[in-house]
Amino acid sequence: MHRLSITVGLALAAFHAGVLAAGPAASEAPAAPCHTGGYRLVDGSALDLGPGAAGALRWRRPDGQTGALARQADGVWTSTLGWTDRPDGHRLTVVDCERGEILFDGMPGKRRPLMQIDTRFQGSGTTLHGRLTLPPGDGRVPLVVLVHGAERSSAVESYSLQRELASQGIGVFAYDKRGTGKSGGRYTQNYLTLATDAVHAMREAKRLAGRRAGGRIGYQGGSQGGWVAPLAAKIEPADFVIVSFGLAVSPLEEDREAIAFDMERAGFDAGVQRKASDIADATAAIVESDFTDGFEQLEAVKAKYGNEPWFPFVRGNFTSYLLTTPESVVRRDFPALLEGVPAHYDPMPVLANLDVPQLWIFGGQDRDAPPFETLRRLDVLKRAGRPITTATFPQADHGMYEFEIDSKGERVSTRQPEGYLQMMVNFIKQGPAD
Questions:
Q1: I want to staple 238 with a disulfide (CB 3.0 to 4.6 A). Which of 81, 102, 198, 233 is the partner?
Q2: Beta-sheet pairing, 358-363 with 240-244
Q3: CATH code reported for the domain at 115-250+345-430
Q4: CB of 220 within 8 A of CB of 242?
Q5: What are the φ/ψ torsions at residue 324 (nearest 5 degrees)?
Q6: What angle is formed at CA 383 by the lines to CA 381 and CA 384, rounded to 5 degrees?
Q7: pLDDT tens across 69-94, in order?
């Protein structure tokens, strides 16, 4: 599967592919606090260590390489490639955890003295938990607020970007979305509420950073954050917005485009795509009714197309869960899991009137949030003079992960694309390239 098994409940709570981007972190237990950090090896290269699967660690390099680390009986941690089970030859020895001294592939390294300040601050009607991470020293730095996706895990505990960007000389503020981690309030997917929380997070980040907040200050949002971050920047101006694997279409349009991409990848023609759109119509009707109606229509299309060769390839976004979940469970559980989601939300009015410089980064093989219509719309806005930069990593899936195909034909993530992190670093520090 794509990095790990995604349960139906968790996936539907996310509604869209944002949960897949955060999938590894969503099921990974925190490592011992003294392991977690940004490290500098003696050759000058950077290494990040953070939470992995239960009892394990995960290492990351700025070029996108990553692996899972499991502790062996002799105390050495051995690595497997990405989210595969295949050994990659990398080894970690923790020389002194408290002092932050390690050996990675035999090369000595030292944990960087990143500065972290935990805080509780007032969001939109509730108290939220956040963390500011600053590079060492007392110099002025640009500042970015991380706006997370639809996942229910703690961003403060799981987001490696806090350390990865801080190790590149950027101040980073992460916060637990309402109803997650140590934040109060009720979990919601109402984009306006979440954007207002993001504005409050930006204010708190500036307050904590004080005189160290210098230069550009803005947002980075992944997946669902791609709907929320631009809205936050429209409510209260920022210097930049970065959207990673987000969309400029509605959640319902996302699912429809994902089904069309399913058919295209499987080699079926436009006629089959038109048939598959009947399934998208049926599942959209169920969502629009708040899971109270439309089930007969879905059963009818399943009976009509269930034996056709293309039907097993229909995945979509939320459609796959409606196709495989009993009606009684959908009626009982899904309204609460999807509370507040604006299924018809149109982000274009905000984007058409947003003068903040934006960087949109896509995966060319993103099967959960296909970028093709979004790229077309953003191109229209660029021609109209909006300050938008787009970039696509052709072999990346959702979450900006490259992958390989396993023996069962499933995608297994291996790494992030080379240049992805550096592209964000450059945009935060310098803005759009000339």
A1: 233
A2: parallel
A3: 3.40.50.1820
A4: yes
A5: -115, -5
A6: 60
A7: 999 999 999 999 999 999 999 999 99
